[in-house]
Amino acid sequence: MNFTDFNLNDNLNKALIDLEFVIPTPIQENAIPYILDNKDLIGIAQTGTGKTAAFSLPILNSFLSSETKTKEMYPRALILAPTRELCAQIGKNMNDYSKYTDIKTLVTYGGVSPEPQIEALKESQDILIATPGRLIDLVEQRNVFLDDVEFFVLDEADRIIQQGLQADLKKIMKKLPKTRHSLFFSATMNKEIKPIAAEILREPVIVEIESEEKDLKLIDQNVLFTLKENKIKTLINLLKLKEVKSAIIFTNLKQTTDDLIRSLHKNEIKAEALHSGKSNTHREKIIRHIEERSIKVVVATDLASRGLDFEHMTHVINYEIPRDFETYTHRVGRIGRASKKGTAFSICGLDERNFFKKIEENNKYPIRIVNHEFHSNMVKTNGGNKHLATHRKPVKKKGNRNYSNRKGK
Questions:
Q1: Does position 186 have pLDDT exceeding 90, yes or no?
Q2: Which of these ranges, 200-204, 217-221, 306-310, 398-402, has the smallest mean pLDDT?
Q3: DSSP-derived pairing of the beta strands 395-398 and 401-404
Q4: How far is CA 98 from each of CA 93, 167, 186, rounded to the nearest angstrom?
Q5: Residues contacting residue 164 through CB under 8 Å, at least 6 positions apart
Q6: 277 and 334 fall within a common domain
Q7: Is the four-CA dihedral 22, 27, 30, 36 of positive or negative sign?
Q8: In this predicted model, what pLDDT tens digit does every residue of 205-231 receive, in sequence order?
Q9: Does pTM surpass 0.85?
Q10: Three-state SS for 21?
Q11: DSSP 98-120
Q12: Which among 95, 124, 260, 346 has most CB atoms closer than 10 A?
């Protein structure tokens, strides 16, 4: 199937050609026809699977087919997302898809002055992309009205729940018209999300795409066991390997991110930090540099593990072990996308082995143990590429899951 099979507006197809969009992803192929048919929809799909296009293209196509004019401060489509980074990315994609049309899109989020956003709303914005908190501020101050919303999209719904934004969501729902098309996208569908989906949607079609875990087979997963005090040295040795062209390094805390940046700079390794404690201007600059491929190393919290694309990155490094398997898959899933292979390393201290064991037990693909003295044990594979020397321990079966029976675990 090709994008032309959707019979979208010619100006949308023209933009898709510029973007080299030819074959739709599974979420796009399965969701777009239902949305074009005005169905409410639940889309279960991980970030990076192309869901922004899945809901954006039908919305744009509907507006291009309509003679309705958007009024000042009355957007006709509302897209809610949990973070400003995700809002900005959705806005960029929407503008890319609509560049040959006169449809206007505005992105609003907190952390910056609302005045430019308020002024922009006076210019009849067709599509409003917002974080819940900033949207409520704009609504309560009567700078935007949601009475004319025809399409309501809730993106990354599971993260909105995780961030405790249910109350904000309920306030927004009360302002929306009862007659509308609602689209609900989430990486998971758990018991906390189901009642919210039931309240938002009417007889929805459910489209579920296999999770990122299925794509881990494209990623060479490795773990290095070391002492906590040796983590920095281990990381630096990794970053100096020739095959590490670019890397995103994940930490669990903002403070660790900043400390790690200082350590890397002392060792003459250029790196940039990305976390919620940085100013919006800084974060936008870093994301732009990532897109321009002018940054080799990024150190980030889980702010960057979902909603942002790092397709050109060759490596993911878990400097700190995530506390659950889902977070691990999101981090590692920044690479190995669009059928591209990648490499992931996890640097595991003694105090983190229980967390790593849980990841191993849930992972369907092997995680190779790398000798922590790897810097002096480089070996060549048949293909001539250098890889890290490894050692293997006995593996026992426990039910249908593999777990490593290693000392110290």
A1: no
A2: 398-402
A3: antiparallel
A4: 9, 33, 24
A5: none
A6: yes
A7: negative
A8: 999 876 545 467 778 999 999 998 999
A9: no
A10: coil
A11: TTTS---EEEE-SSS-SHHHHHH
A12: 346
Residue among 346, 298, 359 nearest 319 (CA): 346
The domain total for the chain is: 2
Q: Which amino acid is at 296?
A: K
Is the pLDDT score of 400 beyond 50?
no
The residue to which tokens 């509302």 are assigned: 78
Cα separation, 244 vs 268, in Å, equals 16
Q: How many helices (H) and strands (E) does the chain have?
A: 14, 18
Instruction: Tell me the backbone φ, ψ of residue 39, rounded to 5 degrees.
Output: -95, 140
**pLDDT, tens only, 14-50:** 999 888 787 888 889 999 999 999 999 999 877 667 8
Who's near 318: CB < 8 A, 6+ residues apart? 249, 250, 328, 331, 332, 344, 345, 346, 347
Among 175, 208, 241, give the residue marking a domain's end.
208
Owning domain of residue 166: 3-208
Torsion sign (Cα): 318, 322, 324, 329: negative
Q: Which 3 state secondary structure label does DSSP give 378?
A: strand
On whether residue 279 sits in a domain, the answer given is: yes
**Cβ(185)–Cβ(156) below 8 Å:** yes
